[in-house]
């Protein structure tokens, strides 16, 4: 990873990406530092920001994982995509049946 100056939002987004698939096991501060190539101070600040906004939670192990709030966002997105898929299937069926 190239060294570039990141703002808190960029760091926070990179942390969320690093935590993908780690909701149950999480990552420690050190592991997050290694994953996104940032210093412990910057990762700690970004984690505090994400915790305050409800996107990350500290697990019993001390590691950080995605919170239920962000998982709810993912589930809502999936439901919306399912509705869109169903609607497209209806349109496709009408077009194929010559209903338009």
Notable characteristics:
single chain; mainly alpha; Arc Repressor Mutant, subunit A; 2 domains; two-stranded antiparallel ribbon; 4 helices; 2 strands; 62% helix; WH-like_DNA-bd_sf; Tscrpt_reg_IclR_N
Can you give a write-up of this model?
This protein is mainly α and 100 residues long. It has helices spanning 8-18, 29-36, 40-52, 68-97; strands at 56-58, 64-66. The relative contact order is 0.13. The mean pLDDT is 92. The protein is built from 4 helices and 2 strands. Strand 1 and strand 2 (64-66) form a beta hairpin. It is elongated and about 60 Å long. The protein folds into 2 domains: 1-66, Orthogonal Bundle (Arc Repressor Mutant, subunit A), CATH 1.10.10.10; 68-100.
Briefly, what CATH class of the largest domain?
Mainly Alpha
Low-pLDDT runs of 5+ residues are none
CATH topology of the largest domain: Arc Repressor Mutant, subunit A
N-to-C terminal Cα separation, in Å?
53 Å
CATH second-level architecture of the largest domain: Orthogonal Bundle
Estimate percent helicity: 55-70%
How many individual helices? Answer: 4
What is Rg? Answer: 19 Å
């Amino acid at each position: 990873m190239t060294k570039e100056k990141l703002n808190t939002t960029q760091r926070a987004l990179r942390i969320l990406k690093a935590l993908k698939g780690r909701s149950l096991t999480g990552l420690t501060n050190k592991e997050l530092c290694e994953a996104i190539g940032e210093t412990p101070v910057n990762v700690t600040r970004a984690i505090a920001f994400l915790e305050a906004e409800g996107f990350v939670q500290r697990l019993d192990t001390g590691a950080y994982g995605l919170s239920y709030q962000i998982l709810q966002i993912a589930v809502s997105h999936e439901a919306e995509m399912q509705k869109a898929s169903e609607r497209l299937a209806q349109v496709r069926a009408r077009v194929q049946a010559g209903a338009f």
